[in-house]
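$ run holo --ligand "adenosine monophosphate" --emit tokens
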Amino acid sequence: MTTLGAMQHWPLRVMRLVDHAEREHGDGEVVSAWADGLVTRSTWRKIAKDARRMAQALEALDIKKGERIATLAMNHGSHLTAWYGAIGMGGILHTINPRLFEDQLDYIANHAGDRVLLYDQAFAGLVERMKPRWPGIEHYICFDPPTGSSGGAAGDWAFADWIAAHDGNYTWVDGDEREPCALCYTSGTTGNPKGVLYEHRSTLLHTLVEIGPDIFNLSKRSVVLPIVPMFHANAWGIPWAAPATGCKLVLSADYRPATMCRLFREEGVTHSAGVPTIWLTMIEHIESTGEQPGDLKQVTIGGSAAPRAMIKWFRNHGIDVGHAWGMTETSPIGTCGARPLGWEAMTDDEQIDYISRQGRVPFGVELRIVDDEGVELPRDGHTSGRLLVRGPWVIQRYFRAAEDSTDADCWFDTGDVATLHPDGTVQITDRSKDVIKSGGEWISSIDLENAAVGCPGVAEAAAIGIAHPKWDERPLLLCVRAPGSEVCAATIRNYLAGQVAKWWLPNAIEFVDELPHTATGKLSKKTLRDQFRDYRFADATDMVGRD
Ligand code: AMP
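-- output --
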């Protein structure tokens, strides 16, 4: 028989977050900027009460513990309430990404077995089209307008009316800390999306770690505005982190940079987070209008590699950058870069080099790199290999999958290629399928892109491998010019020559009006590869000199 210690049994369940916020930060603000420009204010006290009402409303619909409750919505307080309401009654919150293709939406709601869908009015048309394809969804509830009658289709509930019929006198459904609480599908580039089923315990451990100074650095003094949708890996966990710290949470359904800048200033935002594409549009906006981001002190950039030029821009504006790597399968925080000991003694360039890497693991995450045979590779700062990860908030098995997605030692293959440095930092060099294989060696498409956006006049860049008779693949660089710029290929090439090895230089540079992005705002290399499938370099026999 196991002998237990003599401390209290306190299962790590998500609802403890909202209980804590209600008790300790009851007046703590949650601000919502709705798609139509309306700004509403709530508190943790009200959110907790409304979540209880919603839990009662779900039970009145005969929803049972373990069943899936889906949302198709942008960021706002009612969506947040629904998260806690769904999980509080023992349900599994399934956040659906509305930017997926309709066939994918069809697949995931049916695969998840969703019974209820809560949606934004902005997606009402999409919901109407999908209803015949979602036979399992019995109840539709429209979130907005935030008060009063529905903006949704006839017969659908209005969220405010739906929960108003209940008194909020409710006790959260209890259970084991390893029970599931949330489901999020990854928008894979091939095959059907796959569901990642988060647990109460994994979510709570992830929350406790990510509020720390080396990751989101959140406290009671912070005002945080995630510019990450709540359907993208749970907005990187920020809606769990906010009630843990009691910081003010600002949620916006509108990601236009002018709205963001206004919210930064009017709400006193100190911390924000988003993918590089979001920051790119924000920087362009600030540069062209002269608008200022108020008291913004720290931004976390993740989801794709943060270009050096972007990191520099924030530094020049007195804003600290945390560079995070992770994936839906890692809840999502895997690593994050923050100032190390000795930071002040580092030169400007050394500091930027440091933050350009994807940081280090927090306690709880373990990483290793391996070769194609699975043999562990050294952490020497130059060998690169397949990145494996494990830890209590890392996936074991996809939802409804017959088999684990890890090896026998629980290592999950991320599909990323990385170098581990002796100082503990990680450098993601590519997705294994995006890396450009030239003459038996690898060219990092990420490094090429990041170098290219450092060239004045280049707004965004993407590098893909194009078949080459001699070298197997060679890089093609696709660039979007910054507004008003006339930068030409020769200028970019000359600029790159000072940044990357000679044999990495792209064989061709083409200009495009825009680059395709995935449903989570990342460059869609797959779409680009499809678009440029028949592309051939003008001089395909060209020898590529090595340094
Ligand atoms: P998702 O599950 O959609 O969030 O995508 C996860 C993938 O995004 C990772 O496997 C990486 O390929 C990529 N990714 C996330 N963060 C970074 C980063 N900071 N630098 C480079 N790639 C990143």
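-- notes --
Residues 541-547 have pLDDT under 50 and may be disordered.
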